[in-house]
Amino acid sequence: MAFGFRVFSASLLAIAFLLLFEEWASTPSCTTANPLHRHPHQHTNNLNVMIVADLLLPASDSSLLNHLFRHYYMSKFFRKSFETLRPDLLLVLGDVSARGSGLTRPKWVSVLRQFYRVLGPFVGLPFHAVLGDRDVGECRDLDAERVSWLASKLPGLDSAGCAAFEMGNVSFVTLNAVALLCGNCGLRFEVERVVERESVELRVNGSNEFGSGPVVLLHFPLDRTRNDDYADFQRSSKSLTQGLNVLPQNREVDGGGPYDVLHTLPLNASEYILQALKPRIIFSAHSCEFSDYVHRDVPKI
Question: Which residues, if any, are the signal sequence (predicted)?
Fold first, then answer.
């Protein structure tokens, strides 16, 4: 009898611990810049943006356990994040799918449906998604027709996977960083046309100072090999949480092969973006850490 009671008590403690751990693991650690949470219907001049990346949603042929586990925890995380941050805009900086570049169109549609289900009741929130290498493939697999089809399924993207839009009083420019990584391909030239178009618009509007341009959204970070002697580009700070978010370099994801998180844009492409667009700030994924660099007075995260 006493033994049975001890087993029962231990089981209850284990269940309680698992419930507490689940609650802790699914609660976002991020906070808003303004500690005072807004009322859902309160309008201010501030633009609250929630940024996520590398969702790596599985395809329809992955295991049922994988589907249920990812969907449950990711949905719960999104719900709690939205309730905490009350964002005006959701930005997804690429790699919605774990292995989208190898999926057929029907399977891609199932991934997109899964993404909308993860958003749940917040699916009506304005959102914008950037294309990642897991979505469209690496250079040897990059196909303009595939990119155009996928871009047509995401809000605001043109056939090259780029976009320019405004939200509130903030201008955003999205660039297909995968194409910029891939040298002399047709898609790269399309992306460069977008950069030139936005650069001309900046000059027409008289915005010639660094930091006067749009917010630039990329999947890959800019080149980080610069030093203090090159183009005034230097590391300005390092987050205390950087070491907590580092992932193994060869992580396997849903049968998609090693997940390389070390890509950066080439030096010439990085300088081209900075000089042509004079961005206010650059947000990128694929680094699995938080850090910021400064090019003169242009922050990059």
Answer: 1-25
Domain count, the chain: 1
Separation of alpha carbons 195 and 279, rounded Å: 11
Q: How many helices (H) and strands (E) does the chain have?
A: 8, 12
pLDDT in tens, 31-89: 555 544 444 444 456 888 888 888 888 876 666 666 667 777 788 888 888 888 888 99
Is 198 inside any structural domain? yes
C-beta of residue 57 within 8 angstroms of C-beta of residue 114: yes
Would residue 236 count as lying in a domain? yes
CA atoms 33, 39, 42, 48: torsion sign: positive
**CATH code where residue 220 lies:** 3.60.21.10
Q: What is the DSSP letter of 205?
A: T
In contact, 234 and 294? CB cutoff 8 Å: yes
Q: Quick one: which of 53, 55, 120 has its CA closest to 254? A: 55
Report yes or no: 222 and 274 within 8 Å, Cβ to Cβ: yes
Q: Could you tell me if residue 31 is inside a domain?
A: no
Rounded to an integer, what distance in angstroms lies between the CA atom of residue 212 and that of residue 16? 52
- Look at the block and give the residue holding tokens 């809000």: 155
**Residue 249: per-residue pLDDT:** 40
pLDDT in tens, 118-135: 887 677 888 899 999 999
Which residue range is the domain that position 210 belongs to? 47-300
pLDDT at 190: 93
- pTM for this prediction: 0.77
pLDDT digits (tens, 9 = 90+) for 132-169: 999 998 888 888 999 999 999 998 999 999 999 998 88
Cβ contacts of 8-11, under 8 Å, gap ≥ 24 = none
Flag whether 4 is in a domain. Answer: no
